[in-house]
Amino acid sequence: MLCPVAPNWCVAYPAFVNDSALLNQLLTGILILDDRLTIRYVNSSAESLLDHSAKRLLGEPFTAAFYQCSLASETLVECLNSAQTVLNAEVQFALHSGHDIRVETSIQTVEKEFGRALLLELKQVDQLRRINKEDQQRNQLFATQHLLRGMAHEIKNPLGGLRGAAQLLARQLPDESLTEYTDLIISQSDRLRYLVDRLLGPAKRGESQATNIHEVLERVARTLTYEYGDSLKLIRDYDPSLPDIEVVAEGCEQVFLNIAQNAAQAMSGKGTIVVKTRVEHQLTLFGQRYRQCAVVTLTDNGPGIPTELHDTLFYPLISGRAEGTGLGLSLAQNLVHQHKGKIDFDSRPGKTQFSVYLPYVSENGNEVTDDH
């Protein structure tokens, strides 16, 4: 919808845009384009939305910020020439990173030292949905862990008594051949105890250290190759400039292996898994904003996850396979949360993608400021 710009806003806003530190705290993406539609300013949220750093965007044409966009350049020129505005128009962007986003866009004119300019405000339409999904995931994890710890206490106590009684009984048996039955009771009690411990996962994340995430992924790749051979194709799309990250390497290896094993098993060991690493900037995870996050995506071309499992996929004992235990993804989610990260997935027949977000934070919880 086109309408005249409020003149007071045009006068007041230039003073406001000079405070880049303040604009960088906004969740709304802000861009300023000159009369040639060249990008003259971009804030942190716009960097995150467009998957490009300010260094790469500044001085470039607006059309260089994306692969495809439903907002016509003619609309921008019309707004610029006639001092009109567009309010809350939904625009679809296909980004160079391969992501597709829907953005609520407002366009207004401002007077700058270089002449009349366009100010674009970008609000990601699905951002609220993402925040709600993060809250649901976090609440789901806390509720599940609380339930499991209560169950573990109730199960382990009688198991300990059962195991102790079997040991005492074994000493009283007159025939040693009968101890095979008490040995079975003891071994099955130990198996159940191990299962309960796996359900709970590690209570603490362990000791973290600077880790090359590609070395971790290569260990996972070797494991898959040993098990499935050439029938499973692994494609690597690594960012060679990815900085080392403070993580528990063994825990991260378990996370990636669980996801990759699920993908391989869903495809019966015959298919393709693409492993991709990137750095994303200015991401908000569970209400906390991070300057940089390592993002590892594992994409397969299998049959997809059944729709009815999407909302409960990270619950323990939930599995799409009859022979599955349903523990792998629950454990993976717990390990990633201990690193202040999150797991996302998107699935449809022919393409399932899991994305693991790991923020650059030190072991004491402080954010790592790397100029990658």
Automatic annotation (TrEMBL):
SMART domains linked to this entry: HATPase_c, HisKA, PAS
Q: Which domain of life is it from?
A: Bacteria
An example GO BP is: regulation of DNA-templated transcription
The record lists the catalysed reaction(s) as: ATP + protein L-histidine = ADP + protein N-phospho-L-histidine
> What would be an example GO MF term here?
phosphorelay sensor kinase activity
User: E.C. number, please?
Assistant: 2.7.13.3
Entries under InterPro entries matching the protein: HATPase_C_sf, HATPase_dom, His_kinase_dom, HisK_dim/P_dom, HisK_dim/P_sf, PAS, PAS-like_dom_sf, PAS_fold
Key words of the record = ATP-binding, Hydrolase, Kinase, Nitrogen fixation, Nucleotide-binding, Phosphoprotein, Transferase, Two-component regulatory system
Q: Where in the numbering of this chain does the Histidine kinase domain appear?
A: 150-362
Record bears the keyword Nucleotide-binding = yes
Function, as annotated, reads: Member of the two-component regulatory system NtrB/NtrC, which controls expression of the nitrogen-regulated (ntr) genes in response to nitrogen limitation. Under conditions of nitrogen limitation, NtrB autophosphorylates and transfers the phosphoryl group to NtrC. In the presence of nitrogen, acts as a phosphatase that dephosphorylates and inactivates NtrC.
List the protein's name. Answer: Sensory histidine kinase/phosphatase NtrB
**Which species is the source of this protein?**
Idiomarina ramblicola
Source taxonomy lineage? Bacteria, Pseudomonadati, Pseudomonadota, Gammaproteobacteria, Alteromonadales
